[in-house]
Write a structure and sequence with these properties.
Blueprint lengths: L6 E5 L3 H7 L4 H21 L4 E8 L7 H25 L1 E6 L7 H13 L6 E9 L1 H15 L10 H5 L12 E4 L18 E4 L9 H12 L9 H6 L17
Parallel strand pairs: 1-2, 1-5, 2-4, 3-4, 5-6
Helix pairs in contact: 1-2, 2-3, 3-4
Bound molecules: farnesyl diphosphate.
Length: 254
């Protein structure tokens, strides 16, 4: 059974260990990691991926040593300054999700500019999660919903209503989540959006994760049977396979 795959989300882990293994400072691992973002965006675009979401900086990453945080901020700024012109030409639309108010004004304005400059592109939708946390996203969405509907109570809110206020509103949920670096956890990434996502964990550190590894993750996804709460038999007989369950009013999720 062929599996539609539009959206891949990636937790880019292992930069520090990549560097440590080579007796290099952790920041060198992040430099290599940033260079790899460029390679993987290109590879994903060539492999026909329509949506790619990358976890670049979590809301918990502020706890790292200040020099590492500052190196990561610098790399993000550098990435925007060096890549946006090419993204524009390559049909890549950039979005940044997360609480950007904590960033330096220059970084915030570069993010705004990059989003505006690429807003009409549609070949690949690249979303970078920066100062992002899944719990923050859900809480924020609930608050935004309440602000938008002051006359309603929480009893009136349903899944679609909340999802419309998530930072990823308008993007399909990822069908596949890849995590590099050998750990097997979600780490407060797209908690709501990955409810039915297939997970792929690899021991490769992020700087070593290349186009072939991406292909492998995609191939693994192709072998998965997505049941969305149904039985194998129902899935085999169903014409509605691979649709999000909330789009199917005929069955309940238990
Ligand atoms: C996890 O590796 C990686 C990060 C916390 C940052 C990811 C950042 C980049 C790939 C570069 C900058 C991003 C952009 C978009 C230009 P880790 O440091 O936790 O590695 P470790 O687990 O081996 O210590």
């Amino acid at each position: 059974m062929s599996q539609p795959l539009q959206h891949i989300a990636i937790i880019m882990d292992g930069n520090g260990r990549w560097a440590k293994k080579r007796l290099l400072p952790r920041t060198v691992g992040h430099v290599r990691g940033a260079a790899n973002v460029r390679h993987i965006v290109k590879a994903a675009s060539e492999q026909g991926v329509k949506y790619l979401t990358l976890f670049a900086f979590s809301s918990e990453n502020w706890r790292r040593p200040p020099e590492e945080v500052s190196a990561l901020m610098g790399l993000f700024l550098q990435y925007l300054e060096s890549e946006v012109a090419e993204m524009k030409a390559a049909g890549i639309r950039l979005r940044v999700i997360g609480d950007r108010s904590a960033f330096a004004p220059l970084l915030q304005s570069r993010i705004d500019q990059a989003e505006q400059d690429t807003a009409h592109n549609d070949r690949l939708h690249l979303t970078i999660a920066a100062n992002y946390g899944g719990q923050w996203d859900i809480l924020n969405a609930a608050r935004a919903w309440q602000m938008a509907h002051p006359e309603k109570t929480l009893q009136d809110m349903d899944e679609q209503a909340l999802a419309a206020h998530l930072s990823t509103a308008g993007l399909p949920d990822p069908e596949l989540l890849v995590r590099t670096g050998g750990e097997s956890r979600i780490s407060n990434f797209l908690l709501w959006q990955t409810a039915y996502t297939e997970l792929f964990f690899t021991d490769l550190h992020w700087p070593d994760f290349n186009g072939a590894a991406l292909q492998q993750a995609i191939a693994s996804y192709g072998q998965r049977v997505r049941r969305f709460g149904q039985t194998d038999e129902q899935v085999m007989n169903s014409h509605t396979t691979n649709k999000h369950p909330t789009a199917q009013p005929t069955f309940k999720i238990s």
